[in-house]
Amino acid sequence: MANIHDIAKLAGVSVTTVSRVLNNHKYVSADKRTKVLTIIDELNYAPNQSAIDLTRGETKMIGLIIPYNNNACFDQLLNGVLNKAVEKDYTVIVLPTQYNKEKEIEYLSKLKNKQLDGIIITSRANDWDTIIPYSDYGLIVSYDFTSHPAIGCSYIDRYSSYVEAFQLLKDKGHEHVAFTTARETESMSTQHLITAYKEVFGTFIPEYYLTGCNCLDDGVAAAKKLLHLPNRPTAIFANGDEVAGGIHMYAKSINLDIPSDLAVIGQENQPIGVGLGITTVDHQLTKVGEQACELIICKSNQKLQIPYQIIQRSSV
């Protein structure tokens, strides 16, 4: 099997020149580059990619820690990361965790082993004290805000968005407002949501809160519980437009009018929400993903806040 020394000898150039051609270094004359590439083609030479990565100090590969991929919100984040990666000629490796702490650490160890240039964390299982030491080995960018200087962030002000959504419902005359989440209180988003609810309504009614909601079927199940309570809610703030879509569909199936009998707000401006006319809190997750990827590529630990917007439709 040919090696870099054989190529240099046959092309009549130094080993350094061959290395520069393999690494696409700009300081190589056109004539020498052509000779080297011709010999590489003739010998059907396949360079050791790991060696090249070590030489140039980067892999051009980014890891994306994601709990699962059957969720429209995480799909939007993934799409944003992929958009920017393709534009900048980077490869993205999806690292699903199912919120398994050991699996998450296994992925973070890829930074220590120089298998990745950086990792984007969309949602984490471990606490920051466990994660932060891995930033010594490579870039880590979070979808959640953290004040630690070693961690870059592409994030939205979820708390403010939740307060604004609840205030919109209150301004429309709703006092009996329910809400759904994907995870329980170990999630920072859920903690923000509960705190925002208390800020707007002054109290927290446990029976108006359901967790474990991720898809349209979960929304239907949530509506079946909430809309048959003795003192049923007059509005529901769902944690995604698919969940909101399920709530909307079930409410219509039992002849409730939307929005006069039940107001519904979703999140993330997804197609089902557009089709059903559901008011939504758009956190611009595709933009969040794009900016997170840009931070890795630029080797930056900046904190970038992406603005959200509430899109009002006929469901409120």
Automatic annotation (TrEMBL):
Keywords: DNA-binding, Transcription, Transcription regulation. SUPFAM superfamilies: lambda repressor-like DNA-binding domains, Periplasmic binding protein-like I. Residues 2-56 form the HTH lacI-type domain. It holds the Pfam family LacI. CDD domains: HTH_LacI (cd01392), PBP1_CcpB-like (cd06286). One of its GO terms (molecular function) is transcription cis-regulatory region binding. PROSITE patterns: HTH_LACI_1, HTH_LACI_2. PANTHER family: CATABOLITE CONTROL PROTEIN B (PTHR30146:SF105), LACI-RELATED TRANSCRIPTIONAL REPRESSOR (PTHR30146). This is LacI family DNA-binding transcriptional regulator. It comes from Paenibacillus agilis.
